[in-house]
Automatic annotation (TrEMBL), chain A:
Domain Acyl-CoA dehydrogenase/oxidase C-terminal: 234-368
Protein name as it appears in the record: Acyl-CoA dehydrogenase
UniProt keyword annotations, A-Z: FAD, Flavoprotein, Oxidoreductase
Ranges where the Acyl-CoA oxidase/dehydrogenase middle domain occurs: 123-219
Chloroplast recorded as keyword: no
CDD domains referenced in this protein's UniProt entry, alphabetically: ACAD
Superkingdom of origin organism: Bacteria
GO molecular function, one term: acyl-CoA dehydrogenase activity
Residue ranges annotated for the Acyl-CoA dehydrogenase/oxidase N-terminal domain, each copy included: 10-117
Protein family according to the UniProt entry: Belongs to the acyl-CoA dehydrogenase family.
Record bears the keyword Nucleotide-binding: no
TrEMBL record, chain B:
Alphabetical list of InterPro entries matching this protein: ET-Flavoprotein_bsu_CS (IPR000049), ETF_a/b_N (IPR014730), ETF_b (IPR012255), ETF_beta_N (IPR033948), Rossmann-like_a/b/a_fold (IPR014729)
Keywords, ordered alphabetically: Electron transport, Transport
Pfam families documented for this protein: ETF (PF01012)
Function: The electron transfer flavoprotein serves as a specific electron acceptor for other dehydrogenases. It transfers the electrons to the main respiratory chain via ETF-ubiquinone oxidoreductase (ETF dehydrogenase).
Protein name, per record: Electron transfer flavoprotein subunit beta
Subunit structure: Heterodimer of an alpha and a beta subunit.
GO MF annotations in UniProt: electron transfer activity
Family designation: Belongs to the ETF beta-subunit/FixA family.
Highest taxon, organism lineage: Bacteria
Residue stretches in coiled coil: none
Necessary cofactors: AMP
GO cellular component: cytosol
Amino acid sequence: MVTTTSYSDFQQDIRNGVREVCARFDLEYWRKSHEENLYPTEFVKAMSDAGWLGALIPEEYGGSGLGFTEGAIILEEVNRSGGNANQVHAQMYTMGALLRHGSEEQKQKYLPEIASGNLRLQTFAVTEPDAGTDTTKLTTFAVKKGDKYIINGQKIFISRFNNTDLMLLLARTTPLDQVKKKTHGISLFLIDTREVGEGMIEATKIPTMLGGDTNQLFFSDLEVPESALIGEEGRGLYCVMDGMVAERLLVSGSALGNGKWFVDQAVKYGNERVVFDRPITQNQGVQFPIAQAYMELRAAEALMYEAAAKFDAQDPSAGADANMAKYLCSDAAYHAAEACMQTFGGYAAANEYHVNRKWMQARMMKIAPISSNLILSYVGQHVLKMPRSY
Amino acid sequence: MKILVLMKQTFDTEEEIFLVDGKLKESGVKYVINPYDEYAVEQAILLKEQQGAEVTVVSAGPARAEEALRTAVAVGADNAILIDDESLNGDEYTISKVLAAIAQKESYDLILAGHMSVDDGAAQIGPRVAELLGIPHISTITGLTIDGQTARAEKDVEGDLETIEVQLPALLTAQQGLNEPRYPTLPGIMKAKKKPIERVTAADLGIDVAAIGSKTETLTLNLPQKKSGGRILEGELHEQTAELVNLLRNEAKVV
């Protein structure tokens, strides 16, 4: 296994602890989960039971109160073991909006249950067919009627809807043309999907190259109690901003884990694979891309830890750094994926070698949860003060 | 019920072994709880959960063994004792004297240990400590039930299952198959970080170091010879037999 930055004893304990759980779920488990579109329920339960998914929830609400450096490490280790951290990362951070903007009553009701894994908060419904990165364009609408909100509209690419109990949902409560600022008039709801009436949410699966549970959701007169509102009505977008930075950090860790897995695999396979009477890694054309990807991963990792430390310290520049870290980690991981695929040659195409599946996951991280181009434009405009490029 | 678990920190079984100047290279090596001791720790925690018990784990050093003790605390041990005294390093004779001294400080109903460590593989500590304490000992158990002061242990005997009953206090050593050791949870790891570990020295135990010196001495340490590929003899059976005798006599020089 490749060596990497040195960590505190506690961080090393975290790595060892997560590895212990992941060691129970081998590559074949993940291949089956992917090919048969099975949600890795046993893995998610094991991670919950061992307290890893409640790591970021404060101790007073039953979690362990760890920071995002540790959060990123947890997901890094999942992917480094060959697993798919995407299946658990939402359970770790989605609660952030509730933690920072929910009422004490909401926090007491949900956080301890989320920390223990009894309640799954795995779904965050934002994207719509005509509102992706430009979130203010979303048209799903919630109308207040008595002590209820009635929600109508649709969402797309909504992950894990069939494997969650709770769902965070963004909906407009004031139309875009009636607000002073386009980021106003959007509200955040925490919906208990187990209490939703028959036919109010229709979910259709969207098969993707990643396998898993991705859906299109249609809401028809979905009734939710007014107590489902998180924070102030009309200020929902502000409630999820922090969470988006948090997600960048966790995705950075996940990407890093993938990258290290690819490097480990490429080195091991390449050193053993003999062609023309010598290991193929003796060829510079094979060896150098692996070495280059490894260096890129190390550099990206350094920025990720800096960004995570800033986020934990509530430094306002954490947002830019987290985005840059996500860009660099996903890019470096993809280069490692490419090097690994090239090293495996034709065998990379065979599912039983696991490289193609991980390669697809690594590629996706350059697109989701935010496209690399959007990060470039953000850095250009907000960090370097150049004109807005879009 | 008070349970004492004797444990040792060993190389991770996936580590490659290197010798440098005739000594084991220890830097950069990952250490774990000796896998057989893990079964002993797990059994103690299971008993604690099933019928209530206070579980103490002890390791006869070196200082790095603290990590292994913390892992045991993280999965549920109540107390941890580290024998932190280089003058007490030694062979199985020495270490068993030290562990017996620890065991005598309290009255334990049950002492558990792995049946051997995966590094030295001597399998002596358990039986020696039991002898020193004058209590019964059952080795390589694969099943255990405790009913009051009676322990009923199962063990594999040449493919058969032997069931042995013994009155507590007793010392039992664990074999693979006894249970499935759990892994530490995050809250467990965090709790274990804060737990004080008791450190004891020869003086604390009232041990005369000179009187318990090792009875054995390591002269040299060698890695096993690399296996070379086997050879398949060809020809008629009587030709193969003649060739085999020839090779055993002239090449292997064993007959």
